[in-house]
Structures are given as C-alpha cells and as structure tokens.
Amino acid sequence: MSPQARSELFYLPRADVARALSHIDPVAVATDVLKAHARGETDVPDEGYLGWTTPQGHSARSLNMPGLIRGLEPVAGTKIINASLGNTARGVPRADGLTFLFDPETAHPYAMMDAALISATRTAAVSAVAVGLRTRPAHRLAFLGCGAQADAHFGLLLPRLAGLTELTVYDRDPAGADAFLARHRTTAEAAGVRLTVAGAAEDAVRGSDVVVPLTTVTEGYIRSDWLLPTATVVHVSLDDLVAEVVLGAAQVVVDDWQLVRTDPRRLLGRMYREGLLYGQDEPAPPGPAKQVDGTLGELLLKQEPLDESGLTVVNPFGMSVQDVALAHRVFTAATELGLGSRLPR
C-alpha cells in the first residue's frame, strides 16, 4: 500500500456498486468461495451481533461480519449490515450497511462501499449455486417474501432453472407482491415463465419443486405436509421452517456448520442446542436427531449433486467471506471502469 493509498479511502456508492456488479458473474464468485472454504482456505469468525428495540418498539440489529480468504493474493474485510423491522412501514429499506476491504499486509482499510446490494447479490448467488446442484428439472419455483432479496434471486435463479414454467410469490403485504409482479412480469414472460401471486404462503409452497423463503419471520410456519416429497428448500431467511421439516429431510446441507451451531437465534442453531441436530463429525445425541449431511463447498469439490431421493433443506447461514470476495471483485471492476471516489483521511 502506497503512502497516497494510506491517506485515502476509496468509496463506492450504491449506483456504482450496481454498475460494477453488472460486469461480474456473482455465481462464479460464490462457487469459488464455497470451494475455498471447503479446502480450509478461509477464516470466518463468528459474527458480532448487537440487537435492540427501537424507541417505536421495533426489533433492530447490527451485524459485523469479518472474513479472510487466504492464498497468493489474500482478501480481507468486513461487512457491517444493520436492519430494523420498522423500516418497511417508513418506506425505507429494511437493511443497510457498508462493506470494508482491508490491506492484507498493513490491515488498513482501503475501500468501503454500499453493502446492501452486495449482500443481496451474494445471498442470491449462493442460492443459485444450491439449485444448480439439482439434477431434476424444477418446473415450479416459489418465493416467500417480495423485497430486495426476492429481486436479487429473480435475476440469478431464473436463468439457472432449466424447465421452469411458473414462479409463484407470496408476501404478507399484498402491495409488495403486486409491486414485485409489476417489476418482473415482462422479464418472466420473455423467459417463458408465468409469474403469479398466491393468496397465502401455503398456496405458494404446495406443488413447488424449489421453495425459497426470503422473509423476516422469527417463528416457523412451513410444515412438512406443504412440501413436495422431493422438493428443495433453500432456507435463506433461516426461520421459516418448523423443526419437523428438518428432522424429516433426506438431506440437510449448510454453508458453514460452525456458524450454524453457534448461533442461538435461528432454527438450526436452536435445534442443535435442543439435541435435535448435530454435525458430521459429532456424536449423535440421545433421542431422535438429524445429522447435517455436509456443506455446499464439499458437494462442489466432490462434484456431487443434491440427494433428490427425498426432501432437501439447504440452510445457507451466510458467510462473511462471500461478501468480502464479491466486494473485492466489485472494487477491481470499479477501478477499471473509473467509478467511485477517493476520500481524504
């Protein structure tokens, strides 16, 4: 890092992040990171979590998620992403934050950029990796929740689901579902996909080959009898399933078991604490319990598809190294495109 670089901080606003992302294949980035993680080439500490109740009584939180990818050209950084459940009613995004990149030698921050779009994109990219491990065609896809995550998933999943003919969406706010329909109907129809709005979550789930919850719920509601016997659930929002679905799944796949097991708030972490779920290299607890079958990265390295003999639950907790790697690619593309600005320090 040059003396000039130490005196400046490269900044990318949301519009520049979006433009740089249009020159990147985020699914390829996510795939590379999952493989690197499975090879032990990453450091993913437990996330820092701060939760509080806002003056108006809404649940709010701040996450600090550092990560490092080792190698000939190490990449280090952190994502700070905050959210308040009261934001939607105010007409502002539920989540917002910043991603920072660090010089791997000096540890000094050298770049920061809007985090929300990178976060949504990397989340959708990991989901795309997961559905790409299916071997059966998925004719019907369901989204539960129609916010920014649904927009990102729409853009990355539709081109990767061969045979898709219908996307059914549901949102607790009917206006949100209608707005999603208005944003994406033309693109869906051009791809030969019928886009419909369900009147209830159960209606969206039933008959769907792939189900992607993208909500803010904290209590499960998706039951086993809603799901096709060979469905794939990409459990993005982490709390939409009831425990019986996980216990009855033919396969449970995560991105990082350590992150899942140490989290006390989300479903799989709670199941671990209750003795209902355990890892690949852990002894089985007494009583009925489900063993996690592996990670996405392990499947990619082995070139193994998902087990479609029964229900598959993919539970991507969200790894900081995905954000850091994608942010690094955004930074590289942005500098090549002449985007961003340099802030004095």
Looking at the structure, the CATH topology of the largest domain is: Rossmann fold
Q: Which percent bin holds the helix content?
A: 25-40%
Describe the sheet with the most strands.
Answer: 8 strands, mixed
Distance between the termini: 15 Å
Helix/sheet category: alpha/beta
Tally of DSSP helical segments: 13
Q: Which architecture name of the largest domain does CATH use?
A: 3-Layer(aba) Sandwich
Number of domains: 2
Give me some keywords for this one.
single chain, 345 residues, alpha/beta, ornithine cyclodeaminase, domain 1, Rossmann fold, 2 domains, eight-stranded mixed beta sheet, 18 strands, 35% helix, globular
Describe the overall structure.
The protein is α/β, with parallel strands linked by helices. The protein folds into two domains: 139 residues, ornithine cyclodeaminase, domain 1; 198 residues, 3-Layer(aba) Sandwich (Rossmann fold), CATH 3.40.50.720. Helices cover 35% and strands 25% of the residues. The protein has 13 helices and 18 strands. The strands form three sheets. Strands 1, 2, 3, 4, 5, 6, 7 and 18 form an eight-stranded mixed sheet that branches. Strand 9, helix 7 and strand 10 form a beta-alpha-beta unit. The chain is globular, with a radius of gyration of 20 Å. The two termini are 15 Å apart. The mean pLDDT is 96.
